[in-house]
Design a protein that fits this description.
about 80 residues, alpha+beta, 5-stranded mixed beta sheet, DUF4258 domain-containing protein, DUF4258
Length: about 80
């Protein structure tokens, strides 16, 4: 699968900074997600389990399917089982 370029929304940029999420982790999930879930028409959730500070978290990226795709927001959660499909 080839690398896809994404636009990062202003909201996503603020949340990435506020939540101290590494850009490298975001790029990894965008380019090679462990799961892609349909949220609603035109919107998908890219998610992967990542190690952050010795703990396993689910990193969830909300993406609008435009051309190019837009990263709407990003968050991590320790509640992996709640969201894992």
């Amino acid at each position: 699968m080839s690398k896809v370029d994404f636009i990062i929304s202003n909201h996503a940029a603020i949340e990435i900074n506020r939540r101290n999420i590494r850009i490298e982790d975001i790029q990894q999930v965008l380019n090679s997600p462990q799961q892609i879930i349909s949220a609603r028409p035109g919107r998908k959730i890219y998610q992967s389990i990542v190690d952050m500070g010795g703990k396993q978290y689910l990193l969830r990226l909300i993406v609008d399917e435009e051309n190019p795709p837009v990263l709407v927001t990003v968050y991590r959660t320790s509640k992996v089982q709640k969201y894992w499909r």
